[in-house]
DNA sequence: TGTTTTAAGTGTGCATTGTACACGTGTAAA
DNA sequence: TTTACACGTGTACAATGCACACTTAAAACA
């Protein structure tokens, strides 16, 4: 904020137009929506039904409005297009290449979201043109959205190793196998079952229920829930770090 | 980007005004500039000489212009105010609280920069009102700049553990003690000298010179340089990760 | 010239964590 | 009752992390 850029109004209490000479820009929000269906990591994309790039696959997005901050804009976009709210959202990066949107100069702030595919019913306005893709089989996207997805995958990988965000992608009750499938999808590598379970158990933040999921094996698999309160108490009291 | 938000021009080749109805905003860039003087981690702040918040300490910043992207804006701001270019810069986070700048609605993209305090001569226009503060003794800052600094410190801590960015803060030639001082400042904890040196040497990316720094001890301490080419070769060929 | 002072430089042993690895069990379906 | 299938469980070895103390080189000083 250089001095030369300023144009100060007479009355310092009138907090308007301090920076009148500056260029203004359009600010968009784009969301990388990750989902998990208990087997594979997915990403939600929509087919653009307007120009530019009509008919191509795209992240969902929208523009920042005057009366909201970026987090609120991301929540609004997510809710408008999918009907979902109360979703895990994290700001990722801001993209600003001059020609990134051929329609008009637009800066985009990317967010990524984590949701459990099966526990939510979609009823957003765009849901007919939306589709879940396996995260490794997603089509080519418009603008710099491919780069956003790449960065989101990398971020998710890092976060999942040090924060218990994986549970955002699972239903409240889940089996060890589902949790392992999730981590294998996120980390994009196979894990050893016994080592994985030992590791998870050593963290001591899951509660094993007396209930089994009989849908996959004849023997059935015990269900677990993530004890969020216990986790947070450990973080606050001992500086505990969830580390896989 | 909702359909209702659009106003498409007649000729799809005229790539202008696709999103005419949308609100535009001011986009600022603010830089957290970390420096190291071979002893302590520092941060560069300036005393604001214009309203609002005139006379208070602040990060350096500026506004995004039409003909540049954010990375370029950050470089420009840094060069204008300090005379320095070719500096390590990384985008940190975008801040958008509605009243964050009481002067006018402004969204700010924070960047952090790493420079070696002693190797650079400052000749930027603002340098008379700028001052290096010990990172733990910095004064209260305007707006949400304290929060930006907090986040930058956390990011630097994480990055320094997995990327060789520490060398950006040191002169080309440095002693093991200086490197250890740097990491102790960044991580904000004391390290064991032998374990530190063993760890660094096991990474095998430093070259020990036949030259000593005699300025601190009578015995003198060997100087080292970071072998960037060797590091990059290891990264590309073996997926090597610099991990402290 | 030798004595003192100061930071530099160096290695080992124990504890913790990571990782590879295989078999018996419970249940439903045939 | 047999079969098929995923579930659930423990150990041994390797690698890494971490605590820990003395000798050395050179300048300053007596």
Question: Which properties best describe this structure?
Answer:
2 domains, three-stranded antiparallel sheet, DNA-binding, seven-stranded mixed sheet, alpha+beta, 244 residues, disordered N terminus, Nucleoside Triphosphate Pyrophosphohydrolase, Arc Repressor Mutant, subunit A, homodimer
Produce a short descriptive summary.
The structure is a homodimer of 244-residue chains. The first copy, chain A, has 244 residues and is an alpha+beta fold.
Which helices and strands occur, and which strands form pairs?
2 copies of one chain form a homodimer.
Chain A: E1 24-36, E2 41-47, E3 57-58, E4 60-63, H1 70-82, E5 88-95, E6 106-116, E7 130-134, H2 145-162, E8 174-175, H3 176-187, H4 193-203, E9 206-213, E10 221-226, H5 228-238
Chain A binds a DNA duplex (30 and 30 nucleotides) through residues 175-177, 192-195, 197-199, 214, 216-222.
Account of the protein in words:
The structure is a homodimer of 244-residue chains. Chain A has 244 residues and is α+β, with helices and mostly antiparallel strands. Chain A has two domains: 26-161, Nucleoside Triphosphate Pyrophosphohydrolase; 172-238, Winged helix-like DNA-binding domain superfamily/Winged helix DNA-binding domain (Arc Repressor Mutant, subunit A, Orthogonal Bundle), CATH 1.10.10. Chain A has helices at residues 70-82, 145-162, 176-187, 193-203, 228-238, and strands at 24-36, 41-47, 57-58, 60-63, 88-95, 106-116, 130-134, 174-175, 206-213, 221-226. In chain A, strands 1, 2, 3, 4, 5, 6 and 7 form a seven-stranded mixed β-sheet that branches. In chain A, strand 9 and strand 10 (221-226) form a beta hairpin. The longest helix of chain A has 18 residues, at 145-162. Chain A is globular, with a radius of gyration of 22 Å. At the A-B interface, strand 1, strand 4, helix 1, strand 5 and strand 6 of A face strand 1, strand 4, helix 1, strand 5 and strand 6 of B. Strand 1 of chain A pairs antiparallel with strand 1 of chain B. Chain A binds a DNA duplex (30 and 30 nucleotides) through helix 4.
């Amino acid at each position: 904020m250089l001095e030369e850029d300023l144009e100060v109004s007479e009355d310092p209490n009138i907090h308007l137009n301090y920076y009148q000479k500056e260029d203004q820009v359009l600010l968009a929000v784009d969301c990388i929506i990750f989902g998990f269906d208990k087997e594979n990591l997915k990403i939600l994309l929509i087919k653009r039904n307007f120009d530019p790039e009509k008919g191509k696959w795209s992240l969902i997005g929208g523009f920042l409005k005057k009366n909201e901050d970026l987090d609120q804009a991301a929540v609004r976009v997510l809710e408008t297009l999918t009907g979902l709210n109360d979703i895990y959202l994290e700001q990722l990066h801001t993209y600003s290449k001059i020609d990134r949107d051929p329609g008009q100069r637009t800066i985009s702030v990317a967010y990524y979201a984590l949701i459990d595919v099966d526990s939510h019913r979609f009823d957003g306005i765009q849901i007919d043109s939306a589709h879940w893709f396996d995260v490794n089989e997603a089509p080519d996207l418009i603008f710099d959205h491919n780069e956003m997805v790449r960065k989101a995958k990398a971020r998710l990988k890092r976060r999942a190793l040090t924060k218990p965000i994986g549970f955002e992608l699972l239903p409240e009750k889940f089996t060890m196998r589902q949790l392992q499938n999730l981590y294998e999808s996120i980390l994009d590598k196979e894990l050893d079952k016994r080592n994985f379970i030992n590791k998870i158990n050593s963290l001591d933040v899951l509660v094993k229920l007396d209930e089994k999921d009989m849908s996959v094996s004849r023997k059935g698999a015990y269900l677990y829930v993530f004890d969020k309160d216990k986790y947070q108490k450990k973080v606050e009291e001992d500086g505990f770090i969830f580390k896989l």
